[in-house]
Here is the input.
Amino acid sequence: MFETLSDRLTSVFSSLRGKGRLSEEDINATSREIRLALLEADVALPVVREFIARIKERARGEEVSKALNPAQQVIKIVNEELVEILGGETRQIRFAKKPPTVIMLAGLQGAGKTTLAGKLARWLSAERNTPLLVAADLQRPNAVTQLQVVGERASTPVFAPEPGNGVGDPVEVARASIEHARHNNHNVVVIDTAGRLGVDSEMMQQAADIRDAVSPDEILFVVDAMIGQDAVNTAQAFLDGVGYDAVALTKLDGDARGGAALSIRHITGRPIMFASTGEKLDDFDLFHPDRMASRILDMGDVLTLIEQAQRTFDESEVEKMASTMASDDDFTLDDFLQQMSMVRKLGPIGNLLGMMPGMGQMREQIEGIDDKDIDRIQAVIQSMTPAERANPKIINGSRRLRIAKGSGREVSDVNGLVTRFFEAQKMMRKMKKGGGMDGMPGMPG
Ligand code: GDP
Here is the structure.
């Protein structure tokens, strides 16, 4: 799922690599590429239009941060817009004030409702609930048995019509299940309803009758992500026919292109609450728009890091750093110290320097340095004269002794620092000459 879209977007971003600023032409070209990628992923046209309009508007806007290069800025914007289109916040179940909470599942046959009922029961139990599964799909001959099998696997009781009593009335079964739950301390009731292969009015009516009989706290529309644009059409039909509060997307483990996931929220106005990602009962979780967006962009935690870096450093610091890196002046001990203090501010994520503009190649220099190290280095550097700081080559043996005394350190500390600095300086010179400032693994930057 999402592989093609991921690949396409990644290549869009890498074409921005090395750009110093975004021109109108860059924004247009990038938007065009993103548009194609979304259409190819089967995202509904109105969603694509809105998405692209937002990206363009924001990329042109003045929100650009000096801490990020243009490729990173675009990734950040696309990420945020993806989160938005996927629903923003993670949607949680709204539990009834007075139990039982009634959750009704609706959707086409084969969407994965029965499987989802079992998954939901297992998930609810893990969250300290005492669910009851209800077999209100009396259409398919095997449906009740199938739910009983699933219930057993999920260690959850199933409420079903007595065998031998004929087909039974699903509305009555649903109604009776609520009473049963109340008397048997089930705080959540999950009602599996009948589906058809296609949308039909009889099925809709039955679902609507069940809804009216039990007044569910949540109606979940269960839909197979593999059916792409059809998912959106079906979603609309169910919205008109039964109505629902949220969506459960199934078969996200398949090779669906992502269109359903990216379109449904926007088209129906209903959030995706659950994602089902396999046939096993544990392949199931709440749907997290932010994590899904990261997955689509193949970004992992890098975005969190970017934000953390933005929060940690003020612009003047970043600017100063950038100008040091860009200037023809040689890298000095003062610059060295500044770089290290910036890293220290990042705290434990300091070792993930790869995402910091221009600092990727400093990684080896800075790895393994802790706060005390930096304090020591700072003390030594501050005992030097400005001339020595600018050009440590002039520091001879007797000066090293004086500096060590002045900073309360050993001569070996001074020697170590000077050696380390020369290595960093060498690397800096190499970087400046090669123009390669973006040693950013995993980031098109
Ligand atoms: P229902 O007719 O809506 O109740 O659908 P079922 O629960 O019977 O599921 C139909 C088929 O889809 C079954 O073979 C399930 O094992 C399969 N299925 C359900 N959810 C998923 C999923 O998330 N991933 C995959 N790969 N298969 C699923």
About this structure: The two ends are 25 Å apart (CA to CA).
